[in-house]
Protein 1
Amino acid sequence: MESKKFSLTAATISTADFLRKPFRKFQGIPGVETLDGKNLFVVWYANDEPGEGPGNYVILARSSDNALSWREVLHIVPPDGESRVYDPVIWFDPLGRLWLFWAQCHSTYLWDSFDGKAGVWAAVCNDPSGEELKWSVPRRIADGIMMNKPTVLKDQSWALPVSVWALRPDLLVPETVPQAFPNVLFSRDNGETFAWRRGPDVPERTFDEHMIIEQSDGRLRLFVRTGYGIGSAVSTPDGGEWQDIGDSGLGGPNSRFAVRRLRSGRLCLINHQMPHRLPQEKLTSCRENLTAWLSDDDGASWYGRMLIDGRKDVSYPDFAEAGDGFIYLVHDHDRTGCGEILLSRFKEDDIAAGRIVSPGAYCRMVVSALADR
């Protein structure tokens, strides 16, 4: 039997002009970060072939004028022709450093998206306000994939949502079988070291893409992508076990969602508004009606329901809150068609009202599109 291959060599971080944009046939899966709203960073990944597979590379774009203009300032390119770089995450840590995470795996044909091990890599920019961004040497911090931002806990430790996909058990290697859960990677020294903790066995989970919040009682709650929408689990007070594992009741079309705690203490959720629970074979066509909600009670109830984008083929939201109270949200639209990366800006008042009411708020500004090639 041929031994399995893995992508264990760091991808190349390039700040040089990138010449492949005219050849792009796919782009999507974005993330966003900002400190002040004026300086914005958006990350996503693309391919010169129409989909997810070998050759996927990551793009970081920057705006210094309140999103009026954008330029691509960094590209992360796979180390060889049988690898892909994908699922990027961008995040400001409490020290003001800009972290860029991504996944790598061996991939030999289109849609071969997982080699049974994968790996989460990270690079850090200590001065994200500088004219030229300088990055640390990439390092591999865990097996698996991380699709959403870390959470800073009350004790100032970090909780990273890292998973090894369990949907293809036949691809797993012995060392990753015990990790095939939506796990938590903790750092208590500002990212110098990381400690792994097994996550909950949430029924019918697919690509996990989980997010972590700390409840008012100090317990951790995980929200996990599942076949029925969004699953959930809560840690015991001592953090030793997981309980209340099951359907969160939030629904969704088996797709990425976004949930984070805002500075006000409220939770903000971005998900697809679903009319009712649908059979599994119909869910993939329901990536539409991307909507925002608020919660004042740790997610026990939600209100607002502000529609962000009611079109079909809209997906993969990520958001960040600026110091001025604006929430910056990115999502993608029609990844192999127009290939739009879209930015929205709004406040809690807009979500609570169910519509845009704040001066300067907007929805669906184009950051990048395949039509711009």
Protein 2
Amino acid sequence: MDINKVTETIIGASIEVHKALGPGLLESAYEECLCHELSLKSLQYDRQRKLPLTYKGVQLDCGYRIDLFVEERVIVELKTIDKLSPIHDAQLLTYMKLANSSVGLLINFNVPVLRNGIRRKVLNHVD
């Protein structure tokens, strides 16, 4: 499936979850429901995938986890906060670099209209 179609499907599934639940729940509730929607749409995903950090040739387990890794290509970071800030963008971009993923979605469910809580990030070059 084309990467743009994958992100479009993830966003559509997220909107479906938000329409049903609205804002105000825990991140884990949205994650569970989004996983259900992704399954209904036949998208493969890995939930709470460990993200090791390699430092000076040594792989370290620092406890980082990707909320969702969809179709082995798209990182999805979920939030339930008042407002997304630049540190959340930086977190997503760092996770994308560490996981060698060129596309990521940052989705904040704690908004009245979900499209105002979605950010799509693209890395042009992934090492």
Protein 3
Amino acid sequence: MPLPDLLSLPPFTRPVRGEVALPGSKSITNRALLLAALCDGDVTLNGALFSEDTHLMGAALRQLGFNVTEDAVAQTIRVAGRGGEFPVKEADLFVGLAGTAARFLTALCAVAPGGVYRLDGVPQMRKRPMKPLLDALRALGADIRCTGQEGFFPLEIHARGLAGGHVELDASESSQLLSALLMVAPLARQEVRVTLRGSVRWAYVDMTAQVMQAFTPGTKSLIERRDTHSFTLPARSQPYRRKGGVYAIEPDASAASYFLALPLVTGGQLTLRGAQDSKRGLQGDTEFADVVRAVGATVQVGTNGLDVSFRSAAPRRGISERNFKAISDTFLTLAAIAPLLDGPTRITGIAHTRKQETDRVAGMARELTRLGQRVIEAEDSLEIHPQPLTSGVEIETYHDHRFAMSFGVLGCHDLHSNGRPWLSLRNPACCAKTFPHFFELLESLRQNSLAR
């Protein structure tokens, strides 16, 4: 069902109860799509995410001539890999506002043995950082031309493969810049030696390395680390193959953050089916379970996934300080519910999120202030001092899925103790970027709580 342009959120009047089936990980799905296209043979991705970002990635692969078959009901995507061959030699690729698709497809087209590929996205995508990746690929022999502003989309790539050699790369603005380079580097004609400049969100890079490893059976490691900021990727003519032709995608840990936080807002208990903890999962955002534990929720590994619960009468502790650099996609989840906590919350390590779908630090500060909160904003941090919430506010989502879903959770709070909506969201449909049925699922949980 289409969402209205302005969505009034009915709060929960009873504690939440139930089980949540999370969508597949966007980060893993788009990595696996790229690697599957480079495999020699068919690969089926089970539990794949079906959203705008993964649709854009799959559509671009089809534009490049790869056979990509999707089954949304079964949550599977089948990719017919061509072993490094690119069927189409000239294509125009559209990436929307999908950062993973933009960075990954740029690297993929650069490693093609030949062809001319043009890449572009929406106006906001033309502002997102690309220069470190472009410079690194050029240093390896790629012919990449910025047809607008240097260092940004749109691009025109005259593919001729990658020669290899030594590159320096600053991935402090986005770990996707490094992940994109790593996935294609083994196809270069000679080894690639990478030296990192600046800080890196290692959780996402480690995820990339593990997914790459899953597509190289029998190989000890594609990445030979020399120290924490330099490593080598030996050249391999066809480095990717998936044994058995099937790869399972984990549930999305960033999406899990909303439902880990929901019992803190409504009280009650939820099971997040298939969700992983930080000891077992590939995704760094699994650490958000530790955040809700610190606030006061109980999170346990259960038979079917993660079980999270919270007693409504229990205290909800503010977080004196937490660095979110490694799990920054989840900082908005905590920030949005911070008005309900007993004491201030200080969130640090988030400067790089100013260059994502929107300036997330400034946007969150602005919306919380409109909700009556006292917010101290710095370049790399937010400090939120809870005040009585202002009713009747229409939250601006800035076309950013994480704003819509984070404030969607806050709206489940029964502010007036009468079930009356008190918070509305503009453009809630932007959640389709990673979680198209988010609000449908939220409403089904509310209805389920009423039926008990």
